[in-house]
Here is the input.
Amino acid sequence: MDIAMPQADVEVRGNSQIALKKAILEHLAYSVGKDADHAVARDWAVALSLAARDRVIDRWMQTTREVYRTDAKRVYYLSMEFLIGRLLSDTLSNLGILETARAALDELGVSYDKIAESEPDAALGNGGLGRLAACFLDSMSNLGIPAYGYGIRYRHGLFRQKIGDGWQLEEAEDWLAQGNPWEFRRPEVRYPIGFGGSVAAAEGDRAVWTPGETVLAAAFDTPVAGWGGHHVNTLRLWSAKPTGGFDLAHFNQGQFLEAAAPEVLAETICRVLYPDDTTPEGQELRLKQEYFFTSASLQDLLRRFVNHHDDLARLPNHAAVQMNDTHPAIAVPELVRLLVDDHGVGFDKALEITRGCLAYTNHTLLPEALERWPRGLVGAILPRHLQLIERIDQGFATVVAKAQPPVDFEAVRILDTGGDAVRMGNLAFVGSHRVNGVSALHTDLMQRTVFHDLNTVLPGRIVNQTNGITPRRWMKVCNPGLSKLVAQAIGDDWVGDLERIEALAPFADDAGFRADFRTVKQENKRRLSDRIVALTGQTVDPDAMFDVQIKRLHEYKRQLMNALEAVAHYQAIQQAPDADWQPRVKVIAGKAFPGYAMAKLIIKLINDVAKVVNADPVVRDRFKIVFLPNYNVSLAEVIIPAAELSEQISTAGMEASGTGNMKFALNGALTIGTLDGANVEIAERVGEDNIFIFGLTADEVAAARAAGHDPRRYIDASPALAGAIEAIASGAFSPDDPDRFRAITDDLTGHDYFMVTADFDAYAAAQRTVDGAYGDQDDWTRRAVLNTAHAGWFSSDRTIRGYARDIWDVPVGAG
Ligand code: 26Q
Here is the structure.
């Protein structure tokens, strides 16, 4: 180990191995305060992260100066979630110094992989919507679009999931416990955020709102470097602080808790992601969170505009504000309020400016996920906003009354019948110049269902932008083996422009390439097998087919159908132990929302079934079921490159898009899936021979529900399904508590809203087709290569170009 300081003449922030080594040692000593002999993995990770951050800063400042100089239009992406995961490898890779850093650490006797594992996974989100926001940040930097991500700096991200006796257990997550080397605190950037109080009318449209309570929003900035490090954007996360100074008087009287109260109350706002909102207090907290980060972000972008311009009517030429779902939809009345009350703009003009800036992305058609706030709550917390919402609603009512053809008046109003609730989807729709769905099918269904009447009144507002994923994280960094192999074949232009990976298609017919592709997959499977042992103690056979379903636990995603099919498959093996079974490892991972009892029971079922199947000597290595705990971005980065079969089996019409489906296809897994969300577009692009589609279509699901779905009909006609349900109901997997899964079996036999019974036979048949196809390894690999080659369109760079062109009206760089 050579830890002598390199000579002083090495360029301070150079990218050579010697310069990096010097930078790491300098930071280790002077920022972390450790010497190499006493540093633990996390110390090295912090030192390297700071060295990487140093290499981003010059470009960051340059980018900022350039945007000011050219007065370019900026994009502001408002999101309650940013599921960014770890930053070290992505940042180094985007800067082109990942291998150099690895070598520099090698020289110091430190393993890069070990220290990278010590970085906590920033889980400021729970699923697809949050990960999409993170992929978009990367793509906006790659395409040179001046952009800010705006969100909340949660003290605790999404809970850590443990499995105890098969049940999900939740523990608080603590990603900031050991500091965050990527962020910069900006003590001078602070905005007051008010709640409650009273409103007094003033001249014209103005009003004076005197909040009953005020907190400060304080900014923390993280630079986001794009591929090549040319353009660096900012993720600005808000943290809540009390307005006053410390209450020394109370403290000195020994009233320590009273003295700390203002701080505790303020910090409650950004304490956790998704506080339980089943209580009125929880609901109030969530509304406060939404308003808190939305208001801070709008005040920030207005200040930036007003510093250099005086005509507020031109704001839409300088600011495009994207609302990631309805969570920031309070932006509609808030921007109107800031313009009218603080800047003296008339109401009508303010609404026009607001609409010119704002756009809304819808991520779900599920009625329970479309936010509705009780009017009383909005009035109590945001009295001025309720006035403005009423005024917007009334103005809109006069437009609706004139609509041709006439529409369902009540369906389109922002305040629902009786005025008891504020419908945030309708508010976002009316306050935006564009509304987008996230896959072709989802956008079509939006137009035909939830927003049918709004689309009639305001035609042309809805557009589609099919989701995408960043190839930097989801191929280049997470699958170095495949990235290298692809680069040897076609060069590496695809990293910055994924559509070029199409050039790989001819290699599907090259036997040598297929063999190499297979070797890489095998290596990734071995890496995952090691992880499975480390996490669960179970050993799996890396030669078996790796079948994977990883995503949030939700009934519509139908992890239950996967489990039922696993039970039926197990029973079939038991009945014919000597048949020629294709060995399979079924990997399932995902978190259930803490209050979602049915989803938690499904996790328990999967674990109980796994326990029985994995212990059965008759089954041996031919079938294993593994539930991996604590699914997050970092775990996905290990699982996806190793997957061979990607389970995308939602009830058609219910998965808005999916993005995991795209990550799997890019990494050479074949999909078994329904015609739902972006699966439809994946099937179009990879070709029907290279995907396993089964089940009812969205239209068929709607028709079946309208006709009255009868699950018994399907169960009676399917011995395999009936046998699986019977085994679960009789306690075959829960002998200690035979009734444990009653809620599941009763629902399947009685109601089955998610159409598991209707699709079961088609799903099971598709699985047997998969087994047959996998038997021909060489042909399977040919199809896998074609999935990788045809997945280029699913780059988030393509998605962002679409937003830039159809929604934001901003120019795009070379990329
Ligand atoms: C709503 C009200 C109250 C509390 C929480 C919520 C809430 C929170 C999170 C509602 C929805 C979400 C997250 C939704 C989500 O992640 N949707 C996914 O978005 C992806 C990106 O567009 C799609 O690919 C997925 O299909 C969609 O499920």
User: Anything to note?
Assistant: The chain has a mean pLDDT of 96. The longest helix spans residues 41-70. The chain is about 50% helix and 15% strand. Residues 55 and 191 are 30 Å apart (CA to CA).
